[in-house]
Amino acid sequence: MKRVYIYDTTLRDGSQAEDISFSVDDKLRITEKLDELGIDYIEGGWPASNPRDSEYFQKVKDLGLKRAKVVAFGSTHRPRHKAADDQNLRHLVQAGAGAVTIFGKTWDFHVTEAFRIPLEENLDIIRDSVAFLKSHVEKVFFDAEHFFDGFKANPEYALKCLDAAHEGGADCLVLCDTNGGTLPDALAQTIREVKKRLKTPFGIHAHNDSECAVANSLIAVGLGAVQVHGTINGYGERCGNANLCSVIPDLELKMGVECVAGEGLERLREISRFVTELANLRHFRHQPFVGDSAFAHKAGIHVSAVMKQPQTYEHIRPELVGNRRRVLVSDLAGKSSILKKAKEFNIAMNERSPLVADIVRELKDLENQGYQFEAAEASFELLMKKALGLHRRFFDLMGFRVIVEKRKEGEVPINEATIMLKVGGNIVHTAATGDGPVNALDNALRKALEKFYPELRAVRLLDYKVRVLAAGKGTAANVRVLIESGDGREKWGTVGVSENIIEASYQALVDSIEYKLLKQER
To answer: What 3-state DSSP class applies to 426?
Structure first.
């Protein structure tokens, strides 16, 4: 089996993405997870660039990594300086990492316009920088920056840059599509030409500006690349880097290339979500392999087929990458979808029962009104239990009122909700304020119920979405409210629909509370 080394640059290239900023502790925690995944090289950052990266390289030595080597990243030495006197190179050595990667210019345009030095001097800089590092560090990788653009503009000079790095003793020459604009055919043609002259193993570092980073990485491996650079979830500057959450399973499962050890592949989804959480971003639902929708089935025909033979509509078993099959309920659903969801919810249901057809009809009618249960499975579970007589009411609404009062221009409005409920034989009448009318209503509802159901104190409203359903009706249109709630252990979605946004929100809030209370009784 062919072996390829995975080089993760989430902590450096990935952190250059808009809206991402990892703390030192974040970087250390991600490093441990990447080691558990089976990554070979983890690029920790640029020691000379900021105190955060310098601190990381000091603390990462105490982690006791089992497989991965931590890599320090930097550049070739500055023009008109000696390698031995360059502070950047010295910082790379002092970082004490198991390997060092430096980038150097391979596009003549950059040499003459950015560095403003003769082309020959740039070759000396590359050769001397690699040689200096190689005399102090076991592994030195050369990132041939803008290589594919450079080769297109001046093939001979781009190759001379690789020759210079080879002469300096580089262990791997990494061909970089830095601007991310190279298409697969052009990349393959370039690599075939380069291989005629290469004497050193080569790798690939692809950016995703033309949506080809994963494809280009796989093509490079097929043509002999032994090292693949990328980031978890494809995070990176501009449009991102090659997404290792796609590259790794494609290599392992499609191309028969070994790149992660042991059971690492089965942890791929877990680690994808872990990095997303630390990046403080929302999970990309439709991401291949690891996204929530990667193995989600909606059409009734698809569900029926998948329940018999999963490979009819799935290209791999979801468990191989730590994911799971999901059946979505919608107006496209049939009996197979309902039976599958009943099994997921641990609800006993006879497939010949007329109640199955009743639930299908009710589902389609509700979705025609604007309800959506794909992201509100808690509401759908309640719907099924009501149809089967398995649901019980925990309280009854006797009325609520929500007031939004703005007293003065420039001041934030005051939001207050008053609610009256019947809980058993008790009448509860209470009020609460909030950051908005829905938050005030949520607070009042909880305030009324928590003395009877203290477990509700753990429930938090995590996300709130509103969508206007009917175009052309303006403020009289139906709205759909989707709410995501959680209790620290589980998350669930609920839905409400009405012409009145407060009423729609109330429906979703009540479903969220009832779901939590029913769950406690299981």
So the answer is: strand
Q: Most distant CA pair in the chain: distance in Å? A: 90
For residue range 135-192, list pLDDT tens digits in order: 999 999 999 999 999 999 999 999 999 999 999 999 999 999 999 999 999 999 999 9
> pTM (2 decimals)?
0.71
Cα-based torsion angle of the residue sequence 498, 501, 506, 511 in order, rounded to the nearest 10 degrees:
60
- The percentage of residues in the chain with a pLDDT greater than 70, rounded to a whole number, is 95
CB 106 within 8 A of CB 77: no
Looking at residue 207, what DSSP letter applies? B
Q: Which residue has the tokens 């803008």?
A: 146
Structure token pair of residue 378: 């808690």
The angle that helices 501-521 and 377-387 make with each other, rounded to 10 degrees, is: 70
Q: Which residues on adjacent β-strands are paired with residue 142?
A: 102, 173
Closest CA to 333 of 373, 360, 313, 370: 360
The domains of the chain, with CATH numbers, are 2-261 (3.20.20.70), 396-521 (3.30.160.270)
Q: Are 75 and 127 in contact (CB under 8 A)?
A: no
381, 359 contact by CB (below 8 A)? no
Alpha-carbon gap, residue 68 to 6, rounded angstroms: 10
CA distances from 33 to 16, 70, 268, 322, 390 (A): 20, 13, 10, 14, 42
Q: Residue 19 has which token pair?
A: 């809206």
The structure tokens listed for 374 are: 């794909």
**Residue 1 burial (CB count, 10 A):** 6
